Amino acid sequence: MNKKLSLWDATMLVMGSMIGSGIFIVSSDMMRNLGSGYWLLTVWLLTGIMTVAAAISYGELSSMFPKAGGQYTYITEIFGKMTGFLYGWGLFTVIQTGTIAAVAMAFGKFTAYLIPALNNSDPIFQSGTFRITWVQILAIVVILFLTFINTKGVKNGKILQNLFTTSKIIALLGIIVFGFLLVKDSQWASNMSFGWNSFQDFGKEVGNDLVPTGWKSIGSITLLGGIAAAMVGSVFSSVAWENVTFVSGEIENPRKNVVKSMVLGTTIVMVLYMLVNFVYLNALDRDAIAFADKNRPAVAASEVIFGNLGTVIMAILVMISTFGCINGLVLAGARVFQTMAKDGLFFKSATETNKNGVPEKSLWMQGIWACILALSGQYGDLLDMISFVIVLFYMITVFGVIYLRIKKPNLDRPYKTWLYPVTPLLYLLIGTAFCVLLIWFKPNYTWPGFILILLGVPVYWFINRKKEPNNSQKML
């Protein structure tokens, strides 16, 4: 593949893919679970440590396997084609396409702030609970438009990515600065007054209306249960940084620049996320964060900071943020499906590269399925179910660093994980605790997603049913 992406481009892809709509929304649910500004920041800090530790660990694998496909390639090389296929299966069915659909819908919903007619109009079609709205149509148009732009070459995609990522970073920094300069009545002290003992208020009113629903009193793990419940939102807001590994084959000097972009990008984004939550806690009391209209604390905070103009400012910021995020997801995801096709694990036509040097058919397959998910209205439920699986695949990949160190210590490693084995073990420790506690406290967030991935097993067997052991590269 042509090396058209610089370190700057790769870093913008990491940051742009991470910053979507989550940071503007999830803190409401987190506050409802935790009931404390102190614990809200603690959970975001834990998520930041997890994310950066994973990025540092992935760096070793990216330097060893500097080719398109990224995480799919790492898993396949280390644990075999079936495990790699299950990751790719999850990526196509829900993880990548479902995220594209969800972020596109967020774009549509915030556009409706500026164009109320989008929300106020009757559904285009309705049958029972299923309906098609103009917001969904707008989301689909955005997905198809960005898919089309990316079929015209990496250059077009990266220009859009750099422009929108830079814009939203500047806008976020503006919100952060003005969030402290323009707020007259700071809520910081009252929000931080409930610290280590806030979980004791489970079942009680700790604000005017706020009951911290995340704390489950089961022996000594009351505290951990609340953290795990709240981390669903912060973890999901912090994924997709690995998308840069999907386009490793198109990055200049990938053995060095992929890891640099991941570490730089994740670190900067997690610092921005912490600062944005500082703004929420400074501008709003706990009830206002927890019960923000339509779970949008960013809009509520912006109204306090900028007055009536705040809603418009935040709507524009989220539109910029989600548009750039969708572009990054579209650009990167198709490369995985092309690599899978070359391994005989996806539609054969997805291997084709057009005259602009990009996998056009793979891009359209991804885009069309994302549109179907947006049209179905089921993307939100699917993403709730798959959050557990996303972390599980992160853990498998991070474990691969340790596995290769033991099994193949003499392999060339242009970059070695910083503070090995502490860094990967730290991620595995936090990730394991998160997954176990989710299974315990939120089974509806775990088993459905796990079953969805297991459905890929018979699909894999069907694909390979006529293949000889030495003919694993035969295409579909």
TrEMBL record:
It is a multi-pass membrane protein. Pfam families: AA_permease_2. The chain crosses the membrane at residues 7-26, 38-58, 85-108, 128-151, 163-183, 218-241, 262-284, 304-332, 363-380, 386-406, 418-441, 447-463. One of its GO terms (molecular function) is L-amino acid transmembrane transporter activity. Keywords: Membrane, Transmembrane, Transmembrane helix. Its main location: membrane. It is found in: Membrane. GO terms for cellular component: membrane. PANTHER family: AMINO ACID TRANSPORTER (PTHR11785), SOBREMESA, ISOFORM B (PTHR11785:SF512). This is Amino acid/polyamine/organocation transporter, APC superfamily. It comes from Kaistella treverensis. The lineage of its organism: Bacteria, Pseudomonadati, Bacteroidota, Flavobacteriia, Flavobacteriales.
